[in-house]
Design goal:
The chain has 21 helices and 22 strands. It is α/β, with parallel strands linked by helices. Among the domains are: 111 residues, no CATH class; 158 residues, Rossmann fold, CATH 3.40.50.300. Keywords: ATP-binding, Leucine-rich repeat, Nucleotide-binding, Plant defense, Repeat.
Amino acid sequence: MAELIGPILDVIKLIGRKASKYLKFQRKFTEYVDDFNQAQADLRAKEADFQQQLKDEHHFGKMPKQEVERWFEKVEQKLGHAQHVEDKISKGKYLFRSCLGKLVDEATQAMKEVHAEGNFSGGLVVNDPSTIAVNLPTPEVVGAIDVREEIYQYLMGDAVGLIGVWGMGGIGKTTIMKDVHNRLLKESKFRKLIWVTVSQDFDIRRLQNNIASQLERNLSDDEDTIVRAGKLSEMLRGQMRYVLILDDVWRSFSLEDVGILEPTTNNGCKLVLTTRSERVVQSMGFKKVKVPCFSMEEAMNLFLSKVGQDMLPNPTLESLMKLAVRECDGLPLAVVTLAGCMRGQSDPRMWENAIDELRGYIRNIHDMEDKVYGCLKFSYDRLQRIDQDCLLYCALYPEDHGIYKDEITEKWMEEGLIDEMGSRKAMEGSSHSILQKLEENCLLERVQNRPCIKMHDLVRDMALHITRKRFLVKAGMQLEELPNEEDWGEDLEKVSLMHNRISTIPQMMKSPKFPKLTTLLLSWNALKEIPESFFEHFPNLKILDLSYTRLESLPNSISFLEKLTVLLLRGCGCLKSLPCLSKLEALKKLDLGSSGIGEIPQGLEKLVNLRYLNLGRTSHLAWIPTGTLSKLCRLQYLAIHLELESAEELRELNKLEVFEGWFHNVGHLNTFASKRKALYKFSILVCYQVASFRPTTSSNLVRFEGVSFGVGDEIILPYGIEQLSLVRCWGVRSIN
């Protein structure tokens, strides 16, 4: 009997304790609700305080820590539940108070716990990476100390919001502003520093796009300029306390038309522009800051920083250097360029000859900008012919355009400016050596945070003057149609119309053919169609660049370009097919990467002189006829992102040096990789599905994806592999 009574008593005690607790909830229900309301009010107050603190910190480029973000998520969740409990309280009946009291108490304790967790002794915020500007690359800044300090004080003070830095070309305005920009990075006054290059071919929509891009935002190309201006104003208004630097402004414009806010004491913004024209600064109502020429001492210090102070122990050499620098009249660009071309020259006789030559270039020149031109021409003429040609080619790009180093060296090879050395690797090495030499001579400049170079405006002006009868350059000029017929001279050798808005080409002008034209650059246009007769005017064309256009097809007349060596159609996503290419026997480079072609061009197998073939990222291309690739025995570069029926074809390509491709299985990789020593750049995927292939030639990579390895399977990896990746693979026991 006792065995039965014991458990029953335990149950009764348990029920009693539960009942007692529920009775407590009912008797003290009002107290529990008051406690609930207080906990809710405390949590909301703490949340509001933190939100205000974060808002204040946001103006100084700060963002909430991840733990703070998670805390806010918890607060939102608990307060949402509290609202649900409140609704039940308002609808509750007396008989259900015991159950409701328990719910109220649980919600109260949960809010108190979250409130206690909101104790961030290390602070609420960290720096926002998106607002952290980076140092702009600039040479060691010499001279112009007073000007730099004047600009800096205007920016740090409240009295001046619009600052116009002006001075002649080559005087160092951009370098000065880069130095001021980098100095501002060390201060907390401004949340964001925005740098935009404007250039001579001013375009409001492009300026709007460039400013929005610096804010990591986009503007619709389909909208009216006024609407875009309104949206840009809102973007800038949301930044608060920024400095907008507009470099290389050539003419005055309305800030309102662009969407640039007028700086005020309240918004804490500043606007700086650099220009050659005092009139631009004056007409736009900016505070004028003139950049003067360097003093002799400043010019000499700048010269020594470039030419190397290790050459100074010789007193004779030092006096000759001073003579050379004096001829530059304190113009920084002239000083730097002269130092670049004389670097490493320690023979006094070489300096004497150089000074005599320099004086010949600038004799009887009184205009300061013309004198800069004379100094630049002096440096240019001392280059070897191949270096000169490579420099002049850079002028085919738009003004102030950042040119990728790998791209420009590839262009030089396409043009035949680099001697054929038997191997692509050797030619690339030669190209990069020339590029380095032009940089060292200060005729090309490095671009901030990108593997790019660009030409100073005055260097480009010199190049265009030298080539004025041979080159027609209208790159980046916002053209919507071809230049006028009178611009097309019969002596033209190169025409650059890249980066424009040309959508149609009319039936070509009635003038004679252009027998000397070898290079035609039409890339980055909205071009949709080319007339059948167009190519008949260029019988000796060698380089044709139609990349990143909207062409759907090419006219059959392209087959008449029998001297064509380079045909570039990269990024032509609308391109569906090509005419027969069998007559283009001189073709050495064919780039169809990222195009829309659905089948291999007819006659491809006849192009036995091809060195470069890019069929990468051609998602509509399903197959390549067997035997096609094996006939292209001179290929040095091949990118092909579709499955090959047989890897044996690639074994025939003994000269292949760069390869991007996909193999269906390990056996195909082994067939390709065995005894292949010439390969020096490659990106290879071994996978059953190619959809995930993202090739890169930055490192020599082999990637296995979804591969099952059997016991004893042999794997042959290409010579020189730098990176091996195994993703979702099975059966791997060890890697030797």
